[in-house]
Amino acid sequence: MIAHSNISEKNEAILQASLRLFVEYGFHGTPTSKIAAEAGTAHGTIFTYYKTKDDLIAALYEYVKNEFRDFLVKNVRGEGTIKERLRDIFFYSVQWSLDNRKEFYFTQQFQYSTHLKKASTESIVKEKSLHRAIYQEALDNKVFRPLPFEMIAELAMSQMIGMFQFLSEGNYPPSETKALIDEAFKGMWRMLAVV
Amino acid sequence: MIAHSNISEKNEAILQASLRLFVEYGFHGTPTSKIAAEAGTAHGTIFTYYKTKDDLIAALYEYVKNEFRDFLVKNVRGEGTIKERLRDIFFYSVQWSLDNRKEFYFTQQFQYSTHLKKASTESIVKEKSLHRAIYQEALDNKVFRPLPFEMIAELAMSQMIGMFQFLSEGNYPPSETKALIDEAFKGMWRMLAVV
Amino acid sequence: MIAHSNISEKNEAILQASLRLFVEYGFHGTPTSKIAAEAGTAHGTIFTYYKTKDDLIAALYEYVKNEFRDFLVKNVRGEGTIKERLRDIFFYSVQWSLDNRKEFYFTQQFQYSTHLKKASTESIVKEKSLHRAIYQEALDNKVFRPLPFEMIAELAMSQMIGMFQFLSEGNYPPSETKALIDEAFKGMWRMLAVV
Amino acid sequence: MIAHSNISEKNEAILQASLRLFVEYGFHGTPTSKIAAEAGTAHGTIFTYYKTKDDLIAALYEYVKNEFRDFLVKNVRGEGTIKERLRDIFFYSVQWSLDNRKEFYFTQQFQYSTHLKKASTESIVKEKSLHRAIYQEALDNKVFRPLPFEMIAELAMSQMIGMFQFLSEGNYPPSETKALIDEAFKGMWRMLAVV
DNA sequence: GATGAATGAGCATTCATTCAT
DNA sequence: GATGAATGAATGCTCATTCAT
Asked: Of chain A's two ends, which shows fewer C-beta atoms within 10 Å, N or C?
């Protein structure tokens, strides 16, 4: 669920409508006119907030990214062993994507939309900085096996995406979901950690 | 490199051009007219082979999928322990995607192109049947931990995609690439296998 | 430089901004929003002064026309021979257009903007009444050759426009400019006058 | 009447329709959709011939310019005194503009459409080269008074435009029209020529 | 009067698809 | 089969104008 501070009601409605429609019909399958209709605004209103449709898409990405990051910052333990903090990151990342499926799915779509590559590569990396910091820490402290950093990062990320895809298809009750995520984390730990 | 049996030269040129352009500009960023130009045919010719652009995309997907499957069938040991055969699947899957980056990237794009969902879900599952058969075997024989089958499948697949992404960015020499893939396989094994 | 009596500061700013932008980008190339920005007012403010953009354009035309007329009335000798007064009209008309290039250019643009035809034909004729009066006088007194009045009027006007165009491209010092205008007037006199 | 060699029927219809509508409603007052309707083609057809509306406008200008030039070349005496040839240029220029009022009016509109300036300045000069060549000759041979070349050019051109404007309003029979143009030419001669 | 967010009609342009040759 | 001119529905975007504050 999107909810943010200095964003006008109309703007919010536009972002929400965009998210819903992009996820359902894709970027190109969603005319700006439909977004406006879904948002309950006039067509032109979109363009008072965003110069172009691509700008809207990019802004939505930024928006979602921030939601995600805010959620992680709020939930991940600031203290504890590396393993504990890693577990938190893993757990809450998967949890957030399950609780915000549209947002997560949109993110994936975005990263595969070729013509937006340039504007965002930097943005994508930044988005992952929370994760990457702790992988680096684990690597530096020899908690992780001596593998290339990027390999570790990619494998860990993929793991989360895999869990999201798995869990978002079946419909497990919360407690079981929790258990499965933790099971996956243990798997990841066995995969990457020393001993 | 695409090369197949009963496909006319023009058709082949069209598929090749499509692949190149789709990967570079995305489906919607690639007009059929440009495909024709790149393929060295008249615009209309595309539509003597494919009723619609979406048909072309679907056919290309089918085409690539078959290439991949043929490659696996040719290379994966038919005999050996489950672990050996799993390793082969893992290894050659990653290897193929590295040797056919455009093809693999196209596949990923395709799976995130929402408006093509219906036509293909079934197709995608079928594509993965080779992998899934052996995961099932490993699960049935208690070689894998007792986790939901789909979870295992997703985690294993994600691992390969993660390795592709990692390796396709750095530029490692063949021998090192080979070593890294095997390292990743060992990680996956620790993650999923019993003991 | 525009400067007039009962016109509010905002209104004046709007007219000035319009003039500048219309001359540079044309009527259709100048959005009212840009005019407002250039004038330092809110977009809506324009419409408290002018019901429509076309009204603004027409008002600006009227405004400029009056500037020109005032200038002529102030400078043209009220007495003297027909030739002397004609020379003044010719001279000061060209001079004004050189000293007020934007204004003059705007006038020309206006007269070729087809969709404003109706509103202004009458206005344009009125604008030229000072000139026309003296051509009529010259014709009535047989100072001019016996040609159709409209022909004389058009030829004389064209002459001034031609001189403006010529002088506004080169950059002659004032004294030379003056001499060239007088030379042109002599030419016009030879063209139109008896003997 | 436009009529040219290697121009397809549809293209011709588009140019004709454009000319008619531009002259009546102006560039911005004429939607491309109306042009298509008037030309009896589909809307999209315009864009198979011209990449943009501005391209169409520029092409139309080029087209009309060529018509004019062809007409002059066909009619102006190649031999004779400077005066005779000047008279021809003057006479046939005015005559053509009267016989092709839409074309001529379009030309004038075009030259005042600010945002097309860049594309065409060069083109406009070229258009006038036939005239300019003979003015230069007259100046070099001291047939004209020793005035700046550009001044002569502008004054002569203005004269023709003035005559067009005058004649296109009244409705004189051909013989009288002819006489009046010649009268105007004599005036111009008195204005510019030595003695 | 002044503001500027909101409106929606209007427009240029794109592009998959058709079809006569 | 191959061609490419023609089609017209669809779409992103602009901008004059309105109106609640």
From this structure: C
In a shared domain, residues B80 and B105: yes
The answer to whether residues B93 and B2 belong to one domain is: no
* Residue B130 and residue B75 share a domain: yes
Contact C130, C78 (CB under 8 A): no
Domain total in chain A? 1
* Contact residues on chain B for A155, CB-CB shorter than 8 A: 159, 162-163, 166, 184, 187
Tally of helices (H runs) and strands (E runs) in chain D: 10, 0
> pTM here?
0.90
As a residue count, chain B comes to 195
State whether B72 and B43 are in the same domain: no
**Number of Cα atoms under 13 Å in the Cβ half of residue D71:** 25
Domain assignment of residue A66, yes or no: no
Contact residues, chain C, for D102 at CB < 8 Å: none
Q: Which of D94, D104, D112, D132 to mutate to test the interface with C (most CBs of C within 10 A)?
A: D112
State which residues form the domain around A184: 78-192
Burial level of A142, CB count in 10 A (0-12/13-18/19+)? exposed
> Above 60 in pLDDT, residue B136?
yes
Residues 44-103 of A with CB under 7 A from strand F: 44, 47-48, 51-54
Q: Which of C24, C151, C165 lies nearest to residue D180, judging by beta carbons?
A: C151
Whether residue D46 has pLDDT greater than 70: yes
User: Are B147 and A183 a contacting pair at CB < 8 A?
Assistant: yes
Helix (H, G, I), strand (E, B) or coil at D144: strand
Give me the pLDDT at residue C55, please. Answer: 94
What's the longest Cα–Cα distance across chain B? 60
- Give the torsion sign (CA, C133, C138, C141, C142): negative
Mean pLDDT, rounded, of chain A: 90
- Cβ distance of D158 and C158 shorter than 8 Å: yes
Q: Does residue B92 form part of some domain?
A: yes
pLDDT the model gives residue A125: 64
On the question of pLDDT at B122 being above 80, the answer is no
Assign residue B2 the CATH number of its domain.
1.10.10.60
- Which amino acid residue lies closest to nucleotide E15, measuring CA to C1'? B31
Strand F positions closer than 7 A to protein CB: 1-20
Query: What per-residue confidence (pLDDT) applies to B2?
Result: 44
D44 strand E contact, CB < 7 Å: yes
Same-domain pairing of B106 and B179: yes
* Tens-place pLDDT, residues B75-107: 988 889 999 999 999 999 999 999 999 999 999
- E16 C1' – D24 CA distance, angstroms? 35
Gap between the Cα atoms of B168 and B172, Å rounded = 9
Domain annotation covers residue B54: no
Percentage, residues of chain D above pLDDT 90: 78
D160: CATH: 1.10.357
Angle D187-D192-D193 from CA coordinates, rounded to 5°: 95
Does residue B69 share a domain with residue B26?
no
**B142 and B90 inside one domain:** yes
Neighbours of D, requiring at least 3 CB pairs below 8 Å, are: C
CA–C1' gap, C158 and F11, in angstroms? 47
With CB atoms and an 8 Å threshold, state whether D163 touches C154.
Answer: yes
* B187 C-beta less than 7 Å away from strand E: no
pLDDT higher for D91 or C8? D91
Q: Do both B80 and B126 map to the same domain?
A: yes
Do C142 and C83 contact (CB within 8 A), yes or no?
no
Locate the chain D residue with the closest alpha carbon to C191.
D187
A14 is a domain residue: no
Strand E and D54 CB separated by under 7 Å: yes
Report the distance separating Cα D186 and Cα D83, nearest Å: 10
